[in-house]
Amino acid sequence: MVEAVGEGVTGLAPGDYVILNWRAVCGQCRACLRGRPWYCFDTHNATQKMTLGDGTELSPALGIGAFADKTLVAAGQCTKVDPAASPAVAGLLGCGVMAGLGAAINTGGVTRGDSVAVIGCGGVGGAAVLGASLAGAAKIIAVDIDDRKLEWARGFGATHTVNSRTTDPVEAIRELTGGVGADVVIEAVGRPETYQQAFYARDLAGTVVLVGVPTPDMTLELPLLDVFGRGGALKSSWYGDCLPSRDFPMLIDLYLQGRLDLGGFVTETIPLDQVEQAFTKMHHGEVLRSVVVF
């Protein structure tokens, strides 16, 4: 909820119900001027620094911050949505769930009748499954090493599941797609091993989407002849290639119509003082999302 606006802010007023995003588009860079603002190369945050009461400057994560009851952001980081949506659900679109939905719909271009595989079915991968289902994919194969996450994926629309701890996921995906591989494979882990699985689990001229975030030390080695010979597209998905002003209101409307199960990602709601326990649960794979409620 907007509490106050600064000088020169238009289109927002105190009391507006908004979702925060961490990629406020500039409107002037070469991507924006070419009509691709979701790729904006000069996204920005608030110019005024947040401070503690004693004047100590803060560095909010991703320009938004977290685990605080107030934050200071640029106007472009606020997107108004229907206030009928629960805050616990609306807030999910601010990061991980939008990343997964967008990886399928925006980056992967999943459409009616496609076969889709999603490797890694935590919050982001589960959202990719949901996005593929929303787009009308005919076959959605969820891959993970945790049967609990695979069951969650079924709830979001997966038609098949593969536990890659006991089954070769590439062979399983090919077998489930008539021996050819999936049209779109979404890698939501961010590891070289799982990326290679995604690369070889797609059909010829298919698409691989990397939405899992690697660590700086990770490297990838693939035979260049395979990269050439398999064709298709190898894409990275930044924040689900979303445009918040376009995507957030649409997805909230679909949720309110009962057509998008965003509520399924809210495993629990917790007070702020239980954040550390929530991180432990997340690392153990016990939750999709723990949502802090003030």
Automatic annotation (TrEMBL):
Pfam families in UniProt: ADH_N (PF08240), ADH_zinc_N (PF00107)
CC cofactor: Zn(2+)
Organism from which the protein derives: Planobispora rosea
Keyword Metal-binding: yes
Occurrences of domain Alcohol dehydrogenase-like N-terminal (ranges): 2-82
Tagged with keyword Zinc: yes
A single Gene Ontology CC term: cytosol
GO molecular function annotation: S-(hydroxymethyl)glutathione dehydrogenase [NAD(P)+] activity; zinc ion binding
Domain Alcohol dehydrogenase-like C-terminal, first and last residues per copy: 123-255
InterPro entries, per the entry: ADH-like_C, ADH-like_N, GroES-like_sf, MycoS_dep_FDH, NAD(P)-bd_dom_sf
Protein name: Oxidoreductase
Record-stated family: Belongs to the zinc-containing alcohol dehydrogenase family.
GO biological process: formaldehyde catabolic process
SUPFAM superfamilies named in the record: GroES-like (SSF50129), NAD(P)-binding Rossmann-fold domains (SSF51735)
